[in-house]
Amino acid sequence: MENLEKINEIIEIFGHFDVEFAKHMEEKIDTQYFVIENLKNSINHDEMFIKLVILNSIVSYQLCTTGELWWEEFSEYWSKNEVNNENLGEKYVNFLETSKGNRRLLNVKIKRIEKIIPFLENLNLLDFKNYYSNMEELLEKLSKNLNSKKNAKTIVFAIKMFGYASRIVFNEFIPYPMEIEIPKDSRIEKYTLKFTDENPIKFWNSISKTTKIPPLHIDSIIWPVLGRKFNFESCNGIIGEKSKYLFKLLEI
């Protein structure tokens, strides 16, 4: 079942947005961007910073808290604890085992870390710069090493967070590819039900094609707005008049 009236509304709302607006949302509104930016300023090792962000992304599911608070915990911990390429996997597992916000399915998550560590250990900063220019290739590698589908939530989410980290490290904005799909988490799934019963990934792919905004950037617009602590008043001061269209996203 589809609600065509609401679908037309969402297309109209996104007609007021573009990639630059999504970039502004990411850098000025998304808590996850703030906290990894703060972490980057605390770690004097860009390569290790990116590796930690990727590791944290692939286990960011079935949380005991909100995504925002989980990334705050991650950033705070690694701003105080050193790590190197030789002990990266071991140290990250230690963090995961003692974390407050990510205690479910620990054995499964630790196995994921163990699978991806050999791949990450062989990468240097130049490799990450090359992957930033070709995020689809990194998606392919993560998918293969973790034996997951390329549209699996944690795989595409890892690309999103890798994009954030690379933007901060290399001081360059490269938009996400149109081909990389939206992370299908609980917020997005519930919100999509307002419009259709079909697969959220398929639905937002169609919205992406219509609005010419890549799915990961669509996620950056929607995800913070659906958060418990999203404040429209403060957003208005940061985003300006377009914040009224963000409010309409919830009014639909």
TrEMBL record:
It comes from the Archaea. Belongs to the archaeal N-glycosylase/DNA lyase (AGOG) family. Contains two alpha-helical subdomains, with the 8-oxoguanine binding site located in a cleft at their interface. Contains a helix-hairpin-helix (HhH) structural motif and a Gly/Pro-rich sequence followed by a conserved Asp (HhH-GPD motif). It catalyses: 2'-deoxyribonucleotide-(2'-deoxyribose 5'-phosphate)-2'-deoxyribonucleotide-DNA = a 3'-end 2'-deoxyribonucleotide-(2,3-dehydro-2,3-deoxyribose 5'-phosphate)-DNA + a 5'-end 5'-phospho-2'-deoxyribonucleoside-DNA + H(+). Its EC number is 3.2.2.-, 4.2.99.18. 8-oxoguanine binds at residues 32, 60, 71, 157, 183, 219, 223. GO terms for molecular function: class I DNA-(apurinic or apyrimidinic site) endonuclease activity; oxidized base lesion DNA N-glycosylase activity. This is N-glycosylase/DNA lyase. The keyword Disulfide bond does not apply. InterPro entries: AGOG, AGOG-like, DNA_glycosylase. The keyword Iron-sulfur does not apply. The active site is at residues 153, 185. Gene3D superfamilies: Hypothetical protein, domain 2. Keywords: DNA damage, DNA excision, DNA repair, Hydrolase, Lyase. DNA repair enzyme that is part of the base excision repair (BER) pathway; protects from oxidative damage by removing the major product of DNA oxidation, 8-oxoguanine (GO), from single- and double-stranded DNA substrates. Pfam families: AGOG. GO terms for biological process: base-excision repair.
